[in-house]
Amino acid sequence: TWTGLVVPVEGTIDLFEVLDRSDLSESEMEVAIEVLVRSATSLKNSAEQYVDSRMAIARSNSEFAVNFDNSSLTDRDQMAGSMARWREHMREVNRMTEDSEQARVSLLHQVRDSIIEALPPGPGGRVERAYRHVAFADVYAGDRLALEPLIQKVMKLKDLDESQKLAIDQLRAEYLPEYDGFCDQLVDLANMSPQQMFTNEDVDWQEYSRSNDQRQKIMFERDELSMRMARKLRRILNESQLQRIEGLAAYGDTGQSSMDE
Q: CA 218, CA 6: separation in Å to the nearest integer?
């Protein structure tokens, strides 16, 4: 199985969602919105072109399906010809997909970078991080062992003392860069969709298998990190606080999560 496969869909992301998830102050948000407003026309035109290209791909697929002769699948020679036409059609679809995706993503990157440059390093870094989380949600939000949502819940507890707050801040500062590093590696390994795999006759399957093995290793190490930090977080809190953080108590002290039992 191709577990952990990531198919980039950056062209569909909403930059306003990115800003909403960047934890910006009111003044910082005003600066970011001003950049978006200046780019509004370009973003609108790009979005329309992106949608048009997707509709063209859908029409192409529909036309191919209508013209495909299912009866040819009963004859070996005719089936080979039909499959060759299918591969050629899908290669053209892949080309159209890549062209539209690259054009849209290029503009999104330009606007994102303009926002980051207009902000101080701290807020700019949060915008960059939020962008990756939105653009590659399968890698970040799809991780059921990700600890950050629980850390955020813990930080909202009203009865944390100063030593607990300091310990949690230190844990978060240790955890997030390492966690994001694993996620970034997974994103970088995802360079081909399943559709492209099965229509590209030049796929190096040995290399792809090695990449998949590497992906599994990274995911395992990422899970181990989250489990280790969850145990640290549990030891910072008292029993009353633990009971108010749904999900955190599911991480055992021995390295095994009760979610895996």
A: 14
Cβ atoms < 10 Å from Cβ of 136 = 22
CA dist 147 and 143 (Å) reads: 9
- What pLDDT does 190 receive? 63
Contact 19, 201 (CB under 8 A): no
- What string of H, E and C letters represents the secondary structure of 113-152? HHHHHHCCHHHHHHHHHHHHHHHCHHHHCCCCCCCHHHHH
Checking phi first, is residue 255 left (phi over 0); if not, alpha (psi -120 to 50) or beta? Answer: left
**Separation of alpha carbons 149 and 226, rounded Å:** 11
Flag the least confident range among 28-42, 84-98, 206-220: 84-98
Alpha-carbon distance 6 to 215, whole Å?
Answer: 10
Contact 118, 32 (CB under 8 A): yes
What CA dihedral angle connects 35, 41, 42 and 45, to 10 degrees?
A: 150
Is pLDDT above 70 for 96? Answer: no
Lowest mean pLDDT among 18-32, 73-87, 150-164: 73-87
In the structure, what pLDDT confidence band is assigned to residue 207 with cuts at 50, 70 and 90? confident
Measured N-to-C along each axis, helices 40-67 and 26-38 cross at an angle, to the nearest 10 degrees, of 60
* 8 A C-beta contact, residue 96 and residue 56: yes
Helix (H, G, I), strand (E, B) or coil at 238: coil
